[in-house]
Amino acid sequence: MPPAPPRIDWDAITEEATRLLADFIRIDTSNPPGRERAACDWLAGLFRAEGIDDVAFYDASDATEHGADRMNMTATLRGSGKRPPLILLSHTDVVPVERRYWDFEPFSGAVVDGVIYGRGALDMKSMGIMELIAMFLIRRHRLTLNRDVVYMALADEEAGGRWGIEWMEAHHPELLDAEYVINEGGWGSAEVFGVRRPAFNCSISEKGPLWLKLTAEGRPGHGSVPHPDNALERLIRALQKVQDWARPVRVVPELREYFDRLYRGRVLADEPSQQTMEKLAGDNLLARAILTDTVSTTSLHSGFKHNVIPGVAEATLDCRLLPGTDPGKFIEQVRDVIGDKKVKVETIFESSTPSSPIQTELFGIIEDVVHDHVEEALVLPSVSAGFTDSRVFRKHGITSYGFIPYLLEQDEAMTVHGHNERISVENLRLGCQVLFETVRRIAVDA
């Protein structure tokens, strides 16, 4: 065990973290186009002002698809090297906004009644600040490290990581060498499946993204003369078949301990079985998302004039596959369900990840730290419904956990990628406390 924790003025740290998160939100890194260079410059300035000078930039500005300014960075606190590095991972880009639906300017970092509003407040600039605070506290209290602790801020996660984690993997694979990675992918909830019980998710795996494009071609013509070879109507029929497609409920091995812990913690009234899981998936959208391979229709494009039957129609599908699902076989199932050879199915992006074990020193520390701060909380080894940059580390055999230690209410969690995204100052404080103590116990010498 490391020595006793230093005395920390958490009121002052919370005030500092709140100010920093608001400033971070004000840096518009909407992707596209990303413009992550501005975020990296800002973060680097903070580290250097703190006396952490081991800062490096990794310029992916050859990413001309959306212009330059695609930047990745690291800041490192050097340890004795007794243990392999710990990476504190985050991404600096955020998804775009629809301003007219927001109650506050989404890039203002407004702090109102103890709540910080703005795009990235949850996904995932708050985690970036929690990780930064952990680094600052190690530096300020002159803690001796048994390993390097590396802050890694990456670009382009929200668009698949081509100019972030995948660019780093291709150009600087040595930077991915670590024993552990802490990243997004799992956060805490104040209730689980309708039961009030604090629970911290620690994702050990995630569903694999499979982004498909459907293209239907037909005969264009005048809108006053309908005919059966209308490309848009053909595509609509295909999309309806996909939406009507019932995919089976499956409890993958990575989720058995998750549901067992929910049962032992009296969140689930009935012992997990195929029957109880099917009922749960039928009643709850989140349960369905982690118990089935999912398909969401995310865009539809066709036509250019009101009175012209279009000759082509396109749609995109965001499919998320459970661990163990074969993407190639799934695509064949999609084609079989559509049953129309005139609808082309094309893969735009595909990835998958192995899982990380839970029998590790870090997972045990996470459990202990959570219970020290929220005694009655459950710690759940989970599978993230979304994908993260952790997939690349796991592919290289590096244990990566999705662990953002705050407790969200359901209405707060729904603002991720939505309107009025926000995090309470109280949650930011909890996250800073739990994450720092987790890092201290895994990285500070006894």
Structure characterization notes:
The chain has 446 residues and is of the alpha+beta class. The chain is 34% helix and 26% strand. The protein contains 13 helices and 17 strands. The chain has helices at 10-25, 36-49, 125-140, 165-171, 231-244, 253-264, 274-283, 285-291, 327-338, 361-373, 390-395, 410-413, 425-443, and strands at 55-59, 71-77, 86-91, 111-112, 115-117, 149-154, 180-192, 195-206, 208-217, 221-222, 294-302, 308-309, 312-321, 343-350, 378-384, 399-408, 422-424. The strands form 4 sheets. Strands 1, 2, 3, 6, 7, 8, 15 and 16 form an 8-stranded mixed sheet that branches. Strands 11-13-9-14 form a 4-stranded antiparallel sheet. Helix 1 (10-25) packs across helix 3 (125-140) and helix 7 (274-283) packs across helix 8. It is globular, with a radius of gyration of 23 Å. The relative contact order is 0.19.
List keywords for this structure.
13 helices, eight-stranded mixed beta sheet, 26% strand, 2 domains, alpha+beta, Alpha-Beta Plaits, Aminopeptidase, four-stranded antiparallel beta sheet, 446 residues
Present the secondary structure layout.
Elements: H1 10-25, H2 36-49, E1 55-59, E2 71-77, E3 86-91, E4 111-112, E5 115-117, H3 125-140, E6 149-154, H4 165-171, E7 180-192, E8 195-206, E9 208-217, E10 221-222, H5 231-244, H6 253-264, H7 274-283, H8 285-291, E11 294-302, E12 308-309, E13 312-321, H9 327-338, E14 343-350, H10 361-373, E15 378-384, H11 390-395, E16 399-408, H12 410-413, E17 422-424, H13 425-443
Parallel strand pairs: 3-6, 3-7, 7-16, 8-15
Antiparallel strand pairs: 1-2, 2-6, 4-5, 5-17, 7-8, 9-13, 9-14, 10-12, 11-13
